[in-house]
Design goal:
Pfam families: Acetate_kinase. This protein is an alpha/beta fold. It is 41% helix and 19% strand. The chain starts with a strand and ends with a helix. Bound molecules: adenosine-5'-diphosphate.
Length: 391
Amino acid sequence: MLVVNAGSSSVKYELLDPHTGASQAKGLVERIGLSDGVARHTVGGRTHEQVLDVPDHAAALQLATRAFQEHGPTLADVDLLVVGHRVVHGGAEFADPTLITPEVIATVERLVPLAPLHNPGNLAGIAATQEAFPDVPQVAVFDTAFHQGMPEAAATYAVPRQWREEHRVRRYGFHGTSHAYVSRRAADLLGRPLEEVRSIVLHLGNGASAAAVDGGHSVDTSMGMTPLEGLVMGTRPGDLDPGVAGHLGRVAGLSTEEVERALAKESGLLGLTGSADFRQVMARRADGDPAAVLAFEVVVHRLLRYVGAFAAVLGGLDALVFTAGVGENNVELRAAVLQRLAGFGVLLDAPANAAADGETLITTADSRVAGYVIPTAEEWEIARQAAALVS
Ligand code: ADP
């Protein structure tokens, strides 16, 4: 199974064994359309890298297929079962993995206004992959799909009817493959049927979102119509009074585009500290940098607001799970969140948290809620859903 995750200027790919999920090779082509593109292909523990201009997504896919030919495994020999594509925005149209047809491509194109930075790259990746593997079924797995069953009360913004009906202004949510996979693993680790488990998943990477999952179904999530809402992220602010945009237009003369760019690329950790990378923020915090100290507090405060809100939405909580780059690796952040929840019977197991490696229970046996670190596996989840559809 080949998984393709085509972003605006990069293509990530991974070849997975359909039976075990084991990664057989993976790669990344970056800086598409810019100068000095970089192509990396990792197989058997070795990474092969080249620096060269990559004009477009088709060229990126050609580099990937050539890397398979040169460094293995040869795609002609592996008998490709399916290509699974990560597609960011499926609007309200797609609630399930979908076999890619010309109609599906047309619908994803129609959804470009909802995700102008993401869907075009996804479409370019699909076109290039169809050309490279015309005989292999291709499946779109949407970031938004897992949240499409959210209750209307959670998906609805209280805005004029015309905005909602004509312009599709509603909450869609993202990171769905990660939230689906991680919430399922949490139920497995608890040893209880998925249908009975209420969990909150904190997917904390460069982009970050929380999801409330009840019995395997997303019932609320922190990202909304776009991936800007909710938690504090690397370069995005998360929740913000919508009045701020108009205020900046009036007092600073900023255009809509300028406000949007600042909210997508210059806010979050970057806006608070000058660095979008959580590791660097933690290093500066350890040195006593007041901006980094405050940024950490802001991140934790926002997380607590969502944990509290989602616990109430779920009417109780069985598992609280940390995943993605920051969630899987940052001991202090997990400790700060869990310690503040002690009054609700959530009891941090500090040594387990400090030593967490892979799937780890980080609360004590008498904790009312089980806290976990569960590494996400978006590629595996995309491949699994795509393969399930074609078989
Ligand atoms: P993406 O959303 O790009 O997939 P990732 O899930 O890879 O992001 O997460 C990237 C973030 O994880 C970065 O902010 C990075 O600093 C952070 N991160 C990675 N490793 C660590 C670590 N050991 N400690 C703290 N943060 C980390």
